[in-house]
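Model it.
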Amino acid sequence: MRYVVASSEHAEAIHNVLQTTIRTVYPKYYPQEVADFFCGLHSLEHVKEGVASGRMGVALDEAGNVAGMGCCEGNHITGVYVLPACQGQGFGSLIIDRLEEAIGAVHGVACLNASLSAVCLYERRGYRTVGHGVIDLDGGAKLVYEKMEKRLERRISGGSGDGETA
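Modeled.
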């Protein structure tokens, strides 16, 4: 298992991870309108833009297949998704570790908006809820999420590549 910066060759596989995970997991926690909303947000075009930004990475299994993806912007983790068949195998932890490392190189706090399905995972990793969000969707459905933060040890890169804690 390894984590690499996403390339254009990963775009369709990332799109599959997003759509499959949302369609499988979200209906267990939210009305169908919420899953539809997220699937609409994560179009193939949106994925290609994320890949082009250079802020998206993928977790690859031993065969080199995309098992999950992660993305951040500034100090905000904007997405972590792992195929349902690959969940519980460490892919999510690998992705979050790498995103936190990237954020921690510049910022002292990582923040994210967690879906109901992911709140417990983030709590176990030291995130705490600092607020709640609600988005009203068509048909009266509500997308409820947690605004979460975690203090990180900020690492300052030295010439040798070793970081020292600030």
